Amino acid sequence: MKTLLAQLKGLDTLTADAMGGLVVDLQPIPGDVPVVQVSIEDRQELPIYITCSDAQMLCLCYLWADDEVLPERRMELLQTLLDLNPSVPLSSFGRVGDRYVLLGALGRDARVEDIAKEVAVLSDNALDALSALSEYLK
Amino acid sequence: MSVIKKVMTLLHGSVREIGESVVDANATHIYEQEILDARHSVAQARDELAGVMARQMQSTRQIERLQGDIERYEALVIEALDKAQEALAEEVAAKVGAIEQELQAQTRAHAACAAQVARLKELIRSAEARIREHEREIGVAKTTESVYRATRSISENISQGGSRLVSARESLERIRQRHEDLADRMTAAEQLQQAFGDDALDQKLAAAGIGDEAKRQQRVMDRIRARRAQGAQGTPGSDPAPADD
């Protein structure tokens, strides 16, 4: 099986193309699982992280942490996220530990073109979601 | 226990441990071995199934042939009886009996094949189900594990870099601010372009003696002359004009 970095070769250029020429930067994150950070110009605060297991390729965008949610509106937020899940194209909401994420999954052998498309859509969805759901945040 | 239930139990426990403990390496190894074994037995069962089904088809043909023989010989028995050939009829009847025995054996073999086909199909179905279940189990476990471990790597990387995770609201504000700045800059640039563009054009027109600018001096002179003429008419005594006018 190809290493994650080898599989992502050319992802920066392809994602940049998909996003109308924004500068896209890839950076491997050290650790015991392969993780690559994708930074997109003008959206540096919302990087996309790509990681993989034997079975899947996962693109993650961390949205906010539990302690940022307005406590009195938490239940409403959770329901809204579940309601939104089927409608958000290619991405789903989730939680990892205490952090809310938007994530997209691809097959482990996904083509770099498809990963680029996924990253672009995930970034747009994340920005949109953050903007739309900020009313639930402190 | 279902794999989703297992993950739920783990998630309700300590998140810190998830990276290591969703599925221990040993269990994964066992599952992977079981998948291999199950695949092997599926392949074997499929081979065997093909053989048994071939035998079943052969015995079907055999049964049809024997049934045909019985009909044919029974007709011959009748024919022999009609011709009062009792001894011959007995002989043919014995033949029919022998064929009937063979038919019974063949029918039993056919039934045995059918039972074996059913058994093999069931075996393949259950082995496939086992493979799917283990693959799903490993998939869910490994994915959960890599998500949590990746999150830990990312958090560590961010804190090691001396920076901290900015809050979502702050991130959104910054992104918005940048977008507004960009939009403002673009508007300003457009306005500047327009202003400079207009000025430049006006200057060219004036130089060519066209437009408001070019006629401004002329209009001023005209206005002053008109006022002067009006002043002269209003006060006749002070008219400085010569007498012959």
From TrEMBL, chain A:
<protein>
    <recommendedName>
        <fullName>DUF2170 domain-containing protein</fullName>
    </recommendedName>
</protein>
<dbReference type="Pfam" id="PF09938">
    <property type="entry name" value="DUF2170"/>
</dbReference>
<dbReference type="InterPro" id="IPR019231">
    <property type="entry name" value="DUF2170"/>
</dbReference>
